[in-house]
Design brief:
3-stranded antiparallel beta sheet; 4-stranded mixed beta sheet
Length: 231
């Protein structure tokens, strides 16, 4: 299904869902249904976010390096979805990711110098990952920066977010929210009307992610068949 790519505010998305359901368009706080639709918008946006690494959620940040400090934190109020790569000043290539078990072996030593490896080691009070690097930065690293590429999760919208723009294609969000509402209304039974909207949603979601992640560059990508291997 072709997508327009136009972004909607939370209010515009709810109004479009109401229109699809044959309801009068209202404010977010007008009635029980309008308030419920905000939750269906949240469910849909989280579903879209979890489907892949979206350019709309990609962020890069610099974290100052301190001598003798092994653990580093994200200065972000958003929830971090996952981490891509990490570079450190004066090192051409990215830090090599290692697992927690290997890092636990590494921290038994006191090697110091320019970090070459990292792992995600626990979470902070905001539920964001803690970056642990190895070797421990020495005094020559004072003033250096960790350049981190990561993806954020979208916020949870409330009835106070009428003018907040949702980062994903508006018509895709509407399709998913209508499907979510229809499924709840049917008590969890996948009615034919629900299946029509949900099928359009999953096709549109794949198309939207493909737009920036597979339709650029020189790489050729193949998508496995949904029907399994031919014999």
């Amino acid at each position: 299904m072709p997508l327009s790519g136009i972004r909607y505010t939370v209010l515009e998305a709810v109004n479009q869902v109401q229109q699809q359901l044959g309801l009068d368009q209202t404010s977010l706080t007008a009635n029980k249904v309008s308030r419920e639709l905000v939750e269906h918008i949240n469910t849909t946006v989280n579903d879209i976010s979890d489907f892949g690494n979206w350019m709309e959620q990609m962020v890069s940040a610099n974290i100052p390096v301190s001598a003798s400090v092994r653990d580093y934190f994200f200065a972000s109020s958003a929830v971090i979805k996952n981490v891509g790569d990490i570079f450190v000043t004066n090192r051409v290539g990215p830090l090599n990711p290692i697992n927690v078990q290997d890092m636990r072996v590494r921290i038994r030593t006191t090697a110091r110098g320019t970090p070459t490896q990292f792992t995600l080691y626990g979470t902070d009070s905001n539920a964001n990952p803690i970056l642990r690097v190895d070797p421990i930065p020495d005094t020559s690293m004072t003033g250096a920066m960790l350049s981190v590429l990561y993806w954020e999760k979208p916020p949870l919208y409330t009835t106070s977010d009428s003018s907040t723009v949702i980062p994903f294609p508006g018509d895709l969000v509407v399709l998913g929210a209508v499907a979510s509402y229809l499924l709840r209304e049917s008590g969890g039974s996948p009615t034919p009307q629900y299946q029509v909207y949900y099928q359009k949603f999953i096709e549109g979601r794949r198309e939207a992610l493909n737009r920036f992640n597979s339709d650029t560059g020189w790489d050729v990508k193949f998508r496995p068949s949904y029907y399994g291997r031919r014999r």
